[in-house]
Design a protein that fits this description.
Elements (H helix, E strand, L loop, with lengths): L5 E5 L4 H12 L3 E6 L9 E4 L5 H10 L4 E6 L9 H19 L3 E10 L11 H9 L3 H7 L4 H4 L2 H19 L4 E8 L7 H8 L1 H11 L5 H12 L10 E4 L3 H8 L6
Helix pairs in contact: 1-10, 2-3, 3-7, 4-7, 8-9
The chain binds nicotinamide-adenine-dinucleotide.
The site of nicotinamide-adenine-dinucleotide has 27 residues, from α1 and α8.
Length: 260
């Protein structure tokens, strides 16, 4: 389905990024993987780059040659890392790499961003998020939230809320040319899950996995990223697909009380 297409996948050395790179390759695409860690047995082109600084993003973008057809922004760090790193990689690295590569994405191409089901309440913080993601100066934006315990204490959630807003902004800026969507997984069986247990609580994460019978596989998420890249999703733009096995629907339903 993707024969002849060149697709950039960040976070390609592990987990969802590795599964997505493998799935696109199997579907005929030429994948250009980017990750700070080396990727073993990577079947496409691989760029080792650190997306946590403006220079790292610029270096990565400079190594992507020619026209591309899509960008899957999957690299991410968990909330167990320092808040500056979480926000730098998950928000500004994603924003700047997208900005650098968008002019090279062919008409009709796609950008898909990895958000998270923990970002479901993002619209309540829309104004704060807009000020944050609009900051021209990356370091200044991080300094600006330094004193805000609500942000620094929930840096992962805040970062993925910012990704939800960035997705809408990027879609809106590229209407009719490049579709931009996000995917919001619940728990996925990848190396980052151990950090999520520390950050969100073991009981919460393991309780969800027990309820569902399993965590998602990386391939479960890659399948939806592939769908969003496909012609079948040609009218899907500026939106988010929750991929959590029904967890949020179940939790929401459980809170409802019968009238009476
Ligand atoms: N696993 C889950 O339960 C889950 C749930 C919701 C969302 N997500 C999101 O999915 C994405 C992929 O996570 P995963 O589960 O595959 O975890 P993972 O840890 O297996 O993969 C993350 C990848 O991002 C790369 N990365 C991190 N910082 C980087 C940097 N500065 N520069 C370049 N690459 C960097 C890592 O090296 C790693 O290969 C992340 O954005 C994560 O937040 C994961």
């Amino acid at each position: 389905m993707f024969a002849g297409q060149r697709i950039v996948v960040t976070g390609a050395a592990s987990g969802i990024g590795a599964a997505t790179a493998a799935a696109f390759t199997a579907a005929g695409a030429e994948v250009i993987g980017i990750d700070r860690n080396p990727a073993e047995d990577f079947s496409g082109e691989f760029i080792q780059a650190d997306l946590s600084s403006p220079q790292g993003v610029a270096d990565a973008a400079a190594q992507v040659s020619g026209t591309i057809h899509g960008l899957a922004n999957i690299a991410g760090v968990p909330g167990t890392a320092p808040f500056e790193l979480v926000l730098a990689v998950n928000v500004f690295g994603l924003r700047e790499l997208t900005k650098a590569l968008l002019p090279r994405i062919a008409d009709g191409g796609f950008v898909t961003n990895l958000a998270s089901s923990v970002a479901a309440g993002w619209a309540e913080r829309r104004s704060q998020l807009f000020a944050f993601v609009s900051a021209a100066d990356w370091d200044g934006a991080l300094a600006g939230v330094h004193q805000d315990a609500e942000v620094t204490g929930n840096s992962y959630r805040f970062s993925k809320e910012a990704v939800r807003l960035l997705t809408e902004l990027q879609a809106s800026e590229n209407l009719g040319r490049v579709r931009v969507n996000s995917v919001s997984p619940g728990p996925v069986e990848t190396p980052i899950l151990a950090d999520f247990k520390k950050d969100h609580g073991v009981d919460k994460v393991e309780g969800a996995v027990t309820l569902l019978g399993r965590a998602a596989s990386a391939r479960d998420i890659a399948n939806v990223i592939m769908f969003l890249a496909s012609p079948q999703a040609g009218w899907v733009n500026g939106t988010d697909i929750r991929v959590d096995g029904g967890l949020a629907a179940h939790r929401g339903s459980a809170q409802l009380q019968p009238a009476g």
